[in-house]
Amino acid sequence: MTDALSASERAAMAALAATVGRVTELADKVGRPHEEVLDSEALHLDCGVPVDVIDALLQGRAAGEENIQLRFLQRLQMLQRTQLREDGRKYTQVDIAKGTGISRQQINALCNGERRPTMDHVALLEQFFNRDAGWLQSGDAAALNTALLRREKALLQQYADSESSIHDSTPDLFSRLGVENIALRAALLPDARARAKVVRWLDHLLAEEADKKDQ
Predict the structure, then answer these.
(1) What CA–CA distance (Å, rounded) separates 124 from 105?
(2) Which terminal residue of the chain has fewer beta carbons within 10 Å of its beta carbon, N or C?
(3) C-alpha atoms less than 13 angstroms from C-alpha of 67 in its C-beta half-sphere
């Protein structure tokens, strides 16, 4: 990655730095070592970004492969090295061809970097290896950020569970969980629509409480 970052690259680096800050803060709250939640080898297996690039990005240094085709090849070859079939063996090109519907000749060319993948190739390979859309080609900073967001979600759940376990079992939601824990659980919801339901429910509950006080 060159020193002259594009706007999208700067945005990805800023988002990554913010996520690292949140993850390390949560790790402190639940008593997890930073080196555990930011383990480069584990993150490499999760996002496909090379370990040395992960180390540089976590230190705030611009790094990574700029060429999208080379990123695709890096990550596809990483999957070939690390993903195992049910019998414990690595996937062969024949396995990948059968599982994706892409011809064996095309798979061979893709795995050897001799052919540029189409969008269909990328989507089929991501589905075959059970990876999210964009996993094979997203920028390295963005890919690492996505992996860390998954860790943040897990840490949020761990923190919420640990906080709720120290409270008694009174049925009142506010006294049992507290405002912070309600927010933590809302953050685990999958999308803005689901979180909006929580907001509407809280508004309704607050209105009911206000009516009780007025009576």
Answers:
(1) 15
(2) C
(3) 7
